[in-house]
Amino acid sequence: MARTKSSKAWIREHVTDPYVKRAQAEGYRSRAAYKLQQIAARDKLFSAGMMVVDLGAAPGGWSQIAAKAVAPGGHVFALDILELPPIAGVSYVRGDFHNDATLAELERLLAGRRVDLVLSDMAPNISGIASADQARGLALAGLALDFALKHLKPQGKFLVKVFQGAGFEDFLQAMRGHFRQVAVRKPEASRSRSSEVYLVGKGVRPG
Question: Which is the catalytic residue, given 35, 157, 161, 202?
């Protein structure tokens, strides 16, 4: 099948991307690792001994950063519908986040323990219909928020990817209703043309 102009442009951008080259040189599985690294440095997300959940973890760049940052004594619990090759310090559940059985398996690993940080870099498969993609992206963010509110410690933190557009402001206000501090971040490693931003919530509000 012949490549479209847009796919050729994406390939050209990808192979010349300095973060792609840096990830390859430094052994990270994706350029997204640097997005987390940059946000974490600014917002002091990690410390040794933390329990972290990484939703939408594949190919594993965020889990790699998190596992190193919480060592020694910490652990990462990762979930994705795609395969995730093993990472030291990471327990992995493969399955659909929408699926109750998948969530039950993740909760089994947590064994009733509250976590310090929930990460979500989940994004829907792009259909090309902007309104539908935006709605599905916010739905995933909403599921991640529900999970975080159920499993975080009172002083816990939540980092979630969202896309600016219809419904973004409503989701931002929902975050502010559930966390004592909320910040909007656009890390340097995020491509400027992308509508993605990251919301950081700290300190779960009671109730």
Answer: 161
Is 202 annotated in the active site?
Answer: no
d(CA 79, CA 56): 6
Fold of 30-204: Rossmann fold (3.40.50)
* Residue range 10-36, pLDDT digits in tens: 345 555 688 788 878 876 878 899 999
For residue range 37-52, what is the model confidence (pLDDT) as tens digits?
Answer: 999 999 999 999 999 9
Among the listed residues 122, 143, 104, the one whose alpha carbon sits nearest the alpha carbon of residue 32: 122
At 3 the pLDDT is 52
3-state secondary structure of 131: helix
Token match 């966390």: residue? Answer: 179
Place of tokens 């910040």: 183
Q: How far apart are CA 7 and CA 15, in angstroms?
A: 12
The domain ranges of the chain are 30-204
Per the structure block, which two tokens stand in for 68?
Answer: 């190193």
